[in-house]
Amino acid sequence: SLNYLYRVNCGGDTFIDQNHSVWMADRHRSDSSGWGSRSWADDFPGIPPYFGSQRRTFDPVKNAEWYLFQTFRYGTDKLRYEFPVPDGEYTVELYFMEPWYGRDIHMNCKGWRMFDVAVNDQTVIRDLDIWSFRGANTAIRQRVKVQVTGGLLTVHFPHVSAGQAVVSAIAIATENRAILPSEPSPGLVTLRSSEWDHRFWMSTGDQQFLDHGTTLAHLPPELHGAEWLKGHRSDNFRLVCEVNQPAWIYLMVKRSAPKLRLLNRYEKLEDFVQNGEGQFFDVYRKTAQKGEKLTVNYYDAQFLGGAAFTHIPDMGEEPSTRPVLKFEAEDLPVTGAVERGHFRNSDFVKLNEAGGTIEFEVNPGLAATYLLRFRYMNYSEESIPMQLELINALNGVQMLKETIWFEPADEKWRIMSTTTGSQINAGTYKIRMTVLDQTGIEFDSFEFE
Fold it and tell me: Which of 27, 81, 209, 211 is most buried (most C-beta within 10 Å)?
Protein backbone atom coordinates (compact mmCIF):
# COMPACT_ATOMS: atom_id res chain seq x y z
CA SER A 1 0.00 0.00 0.00
CA LEU A 2 1.04 3.59 -0.55
CA ASN A 3 2.45 5.86 2.13
CA TYR A 4 0.41 9.06 1.92
CA LEU A 5 2.63 11.96 2.95
CA TYR A 6 0.18 14.78 2.29
CA ARG A 7 -3.57 15.04 1.94
CA VAL A 8 -4.72 18.67 1.56
CA ASN A 9 -8.25 20.06 1.63
CA CYS A 10 -7.72 22.91 -0.83
CA GLY A 11 -9.30 26.11 0.43
CA GLY A 12 -10.69 24.38 3.51
CA ASP A 13 -10.09 23.27 7.08
CA THR A 14 -8.82 19.93 8.41
CA PHE A 15 -11.25 17.14 7.51
CA ILE A 16 -11.41 13.45 8.50
CA ASP A 17 -13.15 11.32 5.86
CA GLN A 18 -15.18 8.14 6.32
CA ASN A 19 -12.01 6.06 5.93
CA HIS A 20 -10.44 8.00 8.84
CA SER A 21 -7.92 9.65 6.52
CA VAL A 22 -6.94 13.15 7.63
CA TRP A 23 -7.04 15.90 5.01
CA MET A 24 -5.02 18.84 6.30
CA ALA A 25 -6.16 22.44 6.18
CA ASP A 26 -4.87 24.49 3.26
CA ARG A 27 -1.92 26.62 4.43
CA HIS A 28 -0.04 29.50 2.88
CA ARG A 29 3.62 28.59 2.19
CA SER A 30 5.55 31.25 4.05
CA ASP A 31 8.93 29.50 4.54
CA SER A 32 11.15 27.08 2.62
CA SER A 33 10.94 24.21 5.11
CA GLY A 34 7.17 23.75 5.26
CA TRP A 35 4.58 22.84 2.65
CA GLY A 36 1.80 25.15 1.53
CA SER A 37 0.11 27.04 -1.29
CA ARG A 38 0.94 30.26 -3.12
CA SER A 39 -1.06 32.48 -5.45
CA TRP A 40 -0.97 35.78 -7.33
CA ALA A 41 -1.29 37.61 -4.00
CA ASP A 42 2.29 36.65 -3.10
CA ASP A 43 3.49 39.11 -5.76
CA PHE A 44 1.85 42.01 -3.91
CA PRO A 45 3.08 42.65 -0.34
CA GLY A 46 0.24 43.70 1.95
CA ILE A 47 -2.48 41.64 0.24
CA PRO A 48 -3.80 38.67 2.28
CA PRO A 49 -2.34 35.48 0.77
CA TYR A 50 -5.67 33.84 -0.11
CA PHE A 51 -7.33 36.97 -1.47
CA GLY A 52 -9.20 36.30 -4.71
CA SER A 53 -8.33 32.59 -4.88
CA GLN A 54 -10.62 30.66 -2.47
CA ARG A 55 -14.34 29.98 -2.45
CA ARG A 56 -16.91 27.70 -0.84
CA THR A 57 -20.18 26.31 -2.12
CA PHE A 58 -22.95 24.70 -0.08
CA ASP A 59 -24.40 22.66 -2.95
CA PRO A 60 -24.64 18.87 -2.55
CA VAL A 61 -21.76 16.97 -4.18
CA LYS A 62 -22.16 13.71 -6.10
CA ASN A 63 -19.78 10.76 -5.74
CA ALA A 64 -17.92 12.12 -2.71
CA GLU A 65 -18.06 13.46 0.82
CA TRP A 66 -19.39 16.96 0.49
CA TYR A 67 -17.12 18.89 2.82
CA LEU A 68 -13.93 17.96 0.96
CA PHE A 69 -15.27 19.35 -2.32
CA GLN A 70 -17.37 22.29 -1.16
CA THR A 71 -14.21 24.33 -0.59
CA PHE A 72 -11.73 24.93 -3.40
CA ARG A 73 -8.99 27.18 -4.72
CA TYR A 74 -9.07 28.84 -8.11
CA GLY A 75 -6.63 30.81 -10.25
CA THR A 76 -4.31 30.68 -13.24
CA ASP A 77 -0.55 30.22 -13.57
CA LYS A 78 0.23 31.80 -10.16
CA LEU A 79 -1.72 29.23 -8.13
CA ARG A 80 0.54 26.42 -6.90
CA TYR A 81 1.12 23.93 -4.09
CA GLU A 82 4.68 23.16 -2.97
CA PHE A 83 5.65 20.04 -0.98
CA PRO A 84 9.20 19.28 0.28
CA VAL A 85 10.00 15.61 -0.55
CA PRO A 86 13.15 13.53 -1.09
CA ASP A 87 13.97 12.84 -4.73
CA GLY A 88 12.17 9.81 -6.14
CA GLU A 89 8.90 8.57 -7.64
CA TYR A 90 5.56 9.79 -6.28
CA THR A 91 1.86 9.31 -6.95
CA VAL A 92 -0.10 12.55 -7.16
CA GLU A 93 -3.88 12.43 -6.77
CA LEU A 94 -5.82 15.50 -7.91
CA TYR A 95 -9.46 16.03 -6.96
CA PHE A 96 -11.74 18.39 -8.86
CA MET A 97 -15.37 19.52 -9.01
CA GLU A 98 -17.09 22.05 -11.25
CA PRO A 99 -18.68 24.47 -8.75
CA TRP A 100 -20.30 27.09 -10.99
CA TYR A 101 -20.83 26.16 -14.63
CA GLY A 102 -23.70 23.85 -15.49
CA ARG A 103 -25.63 24.07 -12.24
CA ASP A 104 -28.62 24.46 -14.53
CA ILE A 105 -28.82 20.92 -16.01
CA HIS A 106 -30.17 22.31 -19.28
CA MET A 107 -26.98 24.28 -20.01
CA ASN A 108 -24.19 22.92 -22.20
CA CYS A 109 -20.97 24.17 -20.59
CA LYS A 110 -18.44 22.25 -22.63
CA GLY A 111 -15.29 24.30 -23.02
CA TRP A 112 -16.27 26.99 -20.50
CA ARG A 113 -13.43 25.95 -18.16
CA MET A 114 -10.28 24.34 -19.58
CA PHE A 115 -6.85 24.24 -17.99
CA ASP A 116 -3.59 22.28 -17.80
CA VAL A 117 -2.13 20.71 -14.67
CA ALA A 118 1.64 20.37 -14.26
CA VAL A 119 3.98 18.84 -11.71
CA ASN A 120 7.43 20.44 -11.56
CA ASP A 121 6.91 22.15 -14.93
CA GLN A 122 5.89 18.93 -16.69
CA THR A 123 2.28 18.99 -17.93
CA VAL A 124 0.50 15.85 -16.69
CA ILE A 125 -3.10 16.77 -17.62
CA ARG A 126 -3.88 18.86 -20.67
CA ASP A 127 -7.08 20.86 -21.36
CA LEU A 128 -9.01 19.46 -18.39
CA ASP A 129 -12.72 20.23 -18.83
CA ILE A 130 -14.35 19.17 -15.56
CA TRP A 131 -17.93 19.71 -16.73
CA SER A 132 -17.42 17.43 -19.74
CA PHE A 133 -16.31 14.62 -17.41
CA ARG A 134 -19.28 14.54 -15.04
CA GLY A 135 -21.19 17.83 -15.11
CA ALA A 136 -21.48 20.27 -12.21
CA ASN A 137 -21.14 19.42 -8.50
CA THR A 138 -19.69 15.98 -9.20
CA ALA A 139 -16.31 14.88 -7.86
CA ILE A 140 -13.59 13.46 -10.12
CA ARG A 141 -10.10 12.17 -9.33
CA GLN A 142 -7.06 12.12 -11.60
CA ARG A 143 -3.97 10.11 -10.60
CA VAL A 144 -0.50 10.55 -12.12
CA LYS A 145 2.99 9.24 -11.35
CA VAL A 146 5.87 11.70 -11.33
CA GLN A 147 9.64 11.69 -10.79
CA VAL A 148 10.99 14.39 -8.48
CA THR A 149 14.50 15.84 -8.42
CA GLY A 150 15.55 18.86 -6.40
CA GLY A 151 13.65 18.07 -3.21
CA LEU A 152 10.39 19.87 -4.02
CA LEU A 153 7.16 18.63 -5.63
CA THR A 154 5.12 21.48 -7.10
CA VAL A 155 1.55 21.19 -8.44
CA HIS A 156 0.60 24.15 -10.61
CA PHE A 157 -1.58 25.26 -13.52
CA PRO A 158 0.63 26.71 -16.27
CA HIS A 159 -1.98 27.24 -18.97
CA VAL A 160 -5.67 28.15 -18.75
CA SER A 161 -7.62 28.13 -22.03
CA ALA A 162 -10.99 29.20 -20.56
CA GLY A 163 -12.23 30.31 -17.15
CA GLN A 164 -9.83 29.57 -14.31
CA ALA A 165 -8.29 26.44 -12.87
CA VAL A 166 -10.05 25.00 -9.81
CA VAL A 167 -8.84 22.30 -7.42
CA SER A 168 -10.61 20.77 -4.42
CA ALA A 169 -7.98 18.45 -2.90
CA ILE A 170 -4.47 17.09 -3.48
CA ALA A 171 -2.81 13.93 -2.16
CA ILE A 172 0.89 12.98 -2.45
CA ALA A 173 1.99 9.37 -1.85
CA THR A 174 5.07 7.14 -2.17
CA GLU A 175 5.85 3.44 -1.91
CA ASN A 176 8.73 4.24 0.45
CA ARG A 177 7.39 3.72 3.99
CA ALA A 178 10.41 5.41 5.57
CA ILE A 179 9.69 8.88 4.16
CA LEU A 180 8.01 11.35 6.52
CA PRO A 181 6.09 14.51 5.57
CA SER A 182 7.25 18.04 6.34
CA GLU A 183 5.28 20.25 8.68
CA PRO A 184 3.02 22.90 7.13
CA SER A 185 4.19 26.48 7.07
CA PRO A 186 3.16 28.33 10.25
CA GLY A 187 -0.13 30.19 10.36
CA LEU A 188 -0.95 33.62 11.77
CA VAL A 189 -0.92 32.34 15.35
CA THR A 190 0.81 29.67 17.45
CA LEU A 191 -1.44 28.09 20.07
CA ARG A 192 0.11 27.42 23.49
CA SER A 193 -2.94 25.91 25.24
CA SER A 194 -3.66 22.20 24.77
CA GLU A 195 -7.33 22.57 25.77
CA TRP A 196 -8.04 24.76 22.73
CA ASP A 197 -8.02 23.74 19.07
CA HIS A 198 -6.41 25.68 16.18
CA ARG A 199 -8.69 25.78 13.13
CA PHE A 200 -8.54 27.36 9.68
CA TRP A 201 -11.02 28.75 7.14
CA MET A 202 -13.76 29.78 9.57
CA SER A 203 -17.22 29.47 8.04
CA THR A 204 -20.90 29.26 8.86
CA GLY A 205 -21.79 25.63 9.52
CA ASP A 206 -18.61 25.02 11.55
CA GLN A 207 -19.04 23.47 15.00
CA GLN A 208 -18.46 26.31 17.46
CA PHE A 209 -17.24 24.36 20.50
CA LEU A 210 -15.13 21.24 21.01
CA ASP A 211 -17.63 19.70 23.45
CA HIS A 212 -20.95 20.73 21.89
CA GLY A 213 -22.49 20.29 18.46
CA THR A 214 -24.00 23.75 17.96
CA THR A 215 -22.79 25.36 14.74
CA LEU A 216 -22.04 28.90 13.61
CA ALA A 217 -25.06 30.39 11.85
CA HIS A 218 -23.90 33.96 11.21
CA LEU A 219 -20.47 35.60 11.02
CA PRO A 220 -19.32 39.14 10.27
CA PRO A 221 -17.82 39.25 6.75
CA GLU A 222 -14.37 39.89 8.24
CA LEU A 223 -14.33 36.44 9.86
CA HIS A 224 -15.12 34.30 6.82
CA GLY A 225 -11.96 32.31 6.08
CA ALA A 226 -10.20 33.37 9.29
CA GLU A 227 -7.85 31.28 11.40
CA TRP A 228 -9.55 30.68 14.70
CA LEU A 229 -9.26 29.02 18.09
CA LYS A 230 -12.07 26.78 19.31
CA GLY A 231 -12.68 26.16 23.01
CA HIS A 232 -15.16 24.36 25.27
CA ARG A 233 -18.67 25.41 26.15
CA SER A 234 -19.01 23.53 29.44
CA ASP A 235 -15.54 24.29 30.86
CA ASN A 236 -13.41 27.44 30.97
CA PHE A 237 -9.79 26.79 30.07
CA ARG A 238 -7.08 29.45 29.98
CA LEU A 239 -6.12 30.55 26.47
CA VAL A 240 -2.55 31.46 25.55
CA CYS A 241 -1.30 32.06 22.01
CA GLU A 242 1.30 34.10 20.13
CA VAL A 243 0.84 36.06 16.91
CA ASN A 244 3.41 35.21 14.21
CA GLN A 245 2.92 38.30 12.06
CA PRO A 246 0.88 41.52 12.23
CA ALA A 247 -2.79 40.56 12.46
CA TRP A 248 -6.25 41.50 13.60
CA ILE A 249 -7.38 39.66 16.74
CA TYR A 250 -11.13 39.11 17.14
CA LEU A 251 -12.72 37.93 20.39
CA MET A 252 -16.29 36.57 20.33
CA VAL A 253 -17.83 37.36 23.73
CA LYS A 254 -21.21 36.21 25.04
CA ARG A 255 -23.67 39.07 24.98
CA SER A 256 -24.64 38.23 28.58
CA ALA A 257 -21.04 38.64 29.80
CA PRO A 258 -20.13 41.32 32.35
CA LYS A 259 -17.74 44.07 31.33
CA LEU A 260 -14.31 42.46 30.95
CA ARG A 261 -11.09 44.39 31.55
CA LEU A 262 -9.56 42.25 28.83
CA LEU A 263 -11.55 44.25 26.26
CA ASN A 264 -10.31 47.71 27.27
CA ARG A 265 -8.01 47.91 24.23
CA TYR A 266 -10.52 46.42 21.80
CA GLU A 267 -13.11 48.08 19.59
CA LYS A 268 -16.58 46.59 19.29
CA LEU A 269 -17.92 45.76 15.82
CA GLU A 270 -21.49 46.54 14.83
CA ASP A 271 -21.89 43.00 13.52
CA PHE A 272 -22.02 39.87 15.67
CA VAL A 273 -21.63 36.09 15.75
CA GLN A 274 -24.70 33.91 16.18
CA ASN A 275 -24.90 30.14 16.55
CA GLY A 276 -27.63 27.69 15.60
CA GLU A 277 -29.21 27.89 19.05
CA GLY A 278 -29.81 31.61 18.66
CA GLN A 279 -27.03 32.68 21.06
CA PHE A 280 -25.37 36.00 20.26
CA PHE A 281 -21.70 36.88 20.70
CA ASP A 282 -20.47 40.44 20.37
CA VAL A 283 -17.23 40.78 18.40
CA TYR A 284 -14.30 42.87 19.62
CA ARG A 285 -11.08 43.42 17.68
CA LYS A 286 -7.64 44.99 17.92
CA THR A 287 -4.38 44.89 16.01
CA ALA A 288 -1.44 42.80 17.19
CA GLN A 289 2.22 42.90 16.19
CA LYS A 290 4.49 39.96 15.45
CA GLY A 291 5.42 38.19 18.69
CA GLU A 292 2.53 39.67 20.68
CA LYS A 293 0.85 37.24 23.10
CA LEU A 294 -2.86 36.88 23.77
CA THR A 295 -3.69 35.54 27.23
CA VAL A 296 -7.27 35.01 28.41
CA ASN A 297 -7.57 33.96 32.06
CA TYR A 298 -9.86 31.23 33.36
CA TYR A 299 -12.60 33.65 34.41
CA ASP A 300 -12.75 35.57 31.12
CA ALA A 301 -12.48 32.38 29.04
CA GLN A 302 -15.90 31.19 30.20
CA PHE A 303 -17.49 34.03 28.20
CA LEU A 304 -15.59 33.38 24.94
CA GLY A 305 -17.24 31.82 21.92
CA GLY A 306 -13.88 31.66 20.12
CA ALA A 307 -10.97 33.85 19.00
CA ALA A 308 -10.15 34.59 15.35
CA PHE A 309 -7.18 36.05 13.47
CA THR A 310 -6.94 37.69 10.05
CA HIS A 311 -4.23 39.40 8.02
CA ILE A 312 -4.09 43.17 8.14
CA PRO A 313 -4.52 44.12 4.47
CA ASP A 314 -2.69 47.02 2.87
CA MET A 315 -4.50 47.22 -0.43
CA GLY A 316 -4.01 50.86 -1.24
CA GLU A 317 -7.57 51.92 -0.54
CA GLU A 318 -9.97 52.29 2.33
CA PRO A 319 -12.93 49.87 2.38
CA SER A 320 -15.28 52.83 1.97
CA THR A 321 -13.98 53.41 -1.56
CA ARG A 322 -15.43 50.13 -2.84
CA PRO A 323 -18.56 50.66 -5.00
CA VAL A 324 -21.74 50.41 -2.92
CA LEU A 325 -25.27 50.18 -4.33
CA LYS A 326 -27.96 51.48 -1.98
CA PHE A 327 -31.67 50.69 -2.26
CA GLU A 328 -34.29 52.59 -0.26
CA ALA A 329 -36.93 50.21 1.09
CA GLU A 330 -39.84 52.50 0.19
CA ASP A 331 -38.87 52.29 -3.52
CA LEU A 332 -38.81 48.48 -3.72
CA PRO A 333 -41.55 46.00 -4.72
CA VAL A 334 -43.24 44.27 -1.77
CA THR A 335 -45.94 41.64 -1.26
CA GLY A 336 -48.25 41.05 1.69
CA ALA A 337 -49.52 43.52 4.26
CA VAL A 338 -47.12 46.42 4.80
CA GLU A 339 -47.02 49.64 6.78
CA ARG A 340 -45.10 52.70 5.67
CA GLY A 341 -43.83 55.40 7.97
CA HIS A 342 -41.04 57.77 8.95
CA PHE A 343 -38.60 57.53 11.88
CA ARG A 344 -35.45 59.52 12.67
CA ASN A 345 -35.11 61.14 9.23
CA SER A 346 -35.71 57.86 7.40
CA ASP A 347 -38.72 56.46 5.54
CA PHE A 348 -39.38 52.79 6.30
CA VAL A 349 -41.41 49.80 5.17
CA LYS A 350 -42.76 47.44 7.85
CA LEU A 351 -43.63 43.89 6.78
CA ASN A 352 -46.71 42.73 8.72
CA GLU A 353 -47.65 39.42 7.10
CA ALA A 354 -46.04 35.97 7.13
CA GLY A 355 -44.97 35.14 3.59
CA GLY A 356 -44.63 38.79 2.66
CA THR A 357 -41.58 39.75 0.62
CA ILE A 358 -39.39 42.67 -0.35
CA GLU A 359 -36.80 42.34 -3.11
CA PHE A 360 -34.28 44.26 -5.17
CA GLU A 361 -32.20 43.53 -8.27
CA VAL A 362 -28.42 43.83 -8.61
CA ASN A 363 -26.04 43.60 -11.58
CA PRO A 364 -22.51 42.73 -10.40
CA GLY A 365 -19.95 43.24 -13.14
CA LEU A 366 -17.26 41.00 -11.64
CA ALA A 367 -17.19 37.48 -10.21
CA ALA A 368 -16.77 37.91 -6.45
CA THR A 369 -18.32 37.40 -3.03
CA TYR A 370 -20.50 40.41 -2.21
CA LEU A 371 -21.50 42.05 1.06
CA LEU A 372 -25.16 42.64 1.93
CA ARG A 373 -26.25 45.16 4.58
CA PHE A 374 -29.74 45.66 5.97
CA ARG A 375 -30.69 48.81 7.97
CA TYR A 376 -33.62 47.86 10.18
CA MET A 377 -35.58 48.25 13.42
CA ASN A 378 -36.99 45.36 15.50
CA TYR A 379 -39.16 46.51 18.42
CA SER A 380 -39.80 43.01 19.79
CA GLU A 381 -37.78 41.48 22.62
CA GLU A 382 -36.70 38.52 20.50
CA SER A 383 -34.59 38.06 17.39
CA ILE A 384 -36.71 37.73 14.25
CA PRO A 385 -35.72 35.30 11.47
CA MET A 386 -36.24 36.01 7.78
CA GLN A 387 -35.46 33.98 4.69
CA LEU A 388 -32.82 35.40 2.34
CA GLU A 389 -32.73 34.21 -1.27
CA LEU A 390 -30.30 35.04 -4.08
CA ILE A 391 -31.81 34.14 -7.46
CA ASN A 392 -30.32 34.27 -10.95
CA ALA A 393 -32.74 36.58 -12.76
CA LEU A 394 -31.91 35.05 -16.16
CA ASN A 395 -32.80 31.41 -15.46
CA GLY A 396 -34.43 31.43 -12.02
CA VAL A 397 -31.72 29.27 -10.42
CA GLN A 398 -31.56 29.76 -6.66
CA MET A 399 -27.94 30.57 -5.75
CA LEU A 400 -28.48 31.01 -2.01
CA LYS A 401 -31.24 30.27 0.49
CA GLU A 402 -30.66 30.78 4.19
CA THR A 403 -32.28 32.08 7.36
CA ILE A 404 -30.83 35.26 8.80
CA TRP A 405 -31.68 36.75 12.18
CA PHE A 406 -32.43 40.34 13.14
CA GLU A 407 -31.82 40.97 16.81
CA PRO A 408 -33.85 43.48 18.86
CA ALA A 409 -33.24 47.14 17.97
CA ASP A 410 -35.87 49.47 19.42
CA GLU A 411 -34.06 52.77 19.89
CA LYS A 412 -32.11 53.43 16.72
CA TRP A 413 -31.56 51.97 13.27
CA ARG A 414 -29.26 48.94 13.33
CA ILE A 415 -27.15 47.33 10.59
CA MET A 416 -27.23 43.58 9.95
CA SER A 417 -24.54 42.30 7.54
CA THR A 418 -24.08 39.05 5.65
CA THR A 419 -22.57 37.92 2.32
CA THR A 420 -23.57 36.06 -0.81
CA GLY A 421 -21.85 33.05 0.80
CA SER A 422 -19.67 32.19 -2.16
CA GLN A 423 -18.58 33.85 -5.37
CA ILE A 424 -21.29 34.80 -7.86
CA ASN A 425 -20.51 35.52 -11.48
CA ALA A 426 -21.24 38.73 -13.33
CA GLY A 427 -24.93 38.91 -14.20
CA THR A 428 -28.34 39.97 -12.92
CA TYR A 429 -29.66 38.65 -9.60
CA LYS A 430 -32.75 39.13 -7.45
CA ILE A 431 -32.29 39.40 -3.69
CA ARG A 432 -35.51 38.51 -1.92
CA MET A 433 -36.36 38.74 1.79
CA THR A 434 -39.35 36.71 3.01
CA VAL A 435 -41.15 37.02 6.35
CA LEU A 436 -41.34 33.71 8.22
CA ASP A 437 -43.53 33.27 11.33
CA GLN A 438 -42.69 36.48 13.20
CA THR A 439 -43.55 39.87 11.74
CA GLY A 440 -42.81 43.46 12.57
CA ILE A 441 -39.38 44.29 11.10
CA GLU A 442 -39.03 47.80 9.69
CA PHE A 443 -36.53 48.26 6.83
CA ASP A 444 -35.00 51.59 5.90
CA SER A 445 -32.50 50.53 3.21
CA PHE A 446 -30.37 47.78 1.70
CA GLU A 447 -26.78 47.90 0.46
CA PHE A 448 -24.86 45.67 -1.98
CA GLU A 449 -21.06 45.98 -1.96
Answer: 81
